[in-house]
Design brief:
With 318 residues, this protein is mainly alpha-helical. Among the domains are: 84 residues, Tetratricopeptide repeat domain (Serine Threonine Protein Phosphatase 5, Tetratricopeptide repeat); 131 residues. It has 16 helices and no strands.
Length: 318
Amino acid sequence: MMVFIVLTAVIGAVAAWRLAMPFLKTGQAGAGRLASLVMVPVVLLGALGFYFVNGEPETPGAPYAEVAQRLADTNPEELTSEEQEARLRAILRENPEDVQALTLLGRFLSRTERELEAVTLFTRALQIEEDPRILSDMGQALVVLNNGQVTPEAERAFEAANALDPSLPEPAFFLGSAYYARGERNEAAAVWSDIIMRLDDGDPFRAAIAARAADLLSRPQGGPGSAGAAPFADAIAAGVAPEDLAEMMVSRLEARLEDDPDDLSGWLTLARARWTQGQTEAGLEALERARSRFEDNAGALALISAMRTAFSVEESEQ
């Protein structure tokens, strides 16, 4: 700071001398004006020196301080979204390691389509405290950033969250989704069944996960070019009618379930296939057989019930 003051003094003196040069040749009148000009940089330097010695350049302006204090004193529920964000940012300016503020601001940003900054805040929070909910929040933000795909980074976050607190519904749901996306249906069914068992009957997450999981697990795997269609390549090449080909595939699924009755996804797929074919009773029978097989698995029973409910809804809409 002293270097700056000295440098300013030198520049001011040179400027004053340059300005005074024309007056040095004008006698007494010029001398008076010269004295006035010389006093200008002297006064400026004095004021500048006083500011640097006694001033507080980093003190926030009164308007900002007043706004920050008002936001801090107001019930958060009474603040607008913009004010809530401003309040959280003000807290973090005062304490960059406030985990609660980092998390709340990250969640707010996630809800307002600013997931990239949210991930940064969640990462900062996790460096201070490893918390399952923050891990889940970060995983979900990563999923949104990647258009609904559970990336390896998101999956690791969900795995860590699930390990710390297996009762959280979101990590388990997305872990099941990752298994499902890789074609690992039995693993997905196991994860979803487990979290459903852990949730209370009245928990809205329980019904939502059961409905979504039942829908996914009951979908046929692949299309005509998939591995599941390979045994029917000759029939496809021969131009077998679609309805006959579908019956061949469903019959093969039924035979496979006789050998492997613990395939929950298989039973749900069979029920859906029969329902799609217009064979309602056969579809319901498949669900009843699945119910008998998984009678000791509350999570699996919830998935079967969700499938049965879907049948009822579709039937009432027809």
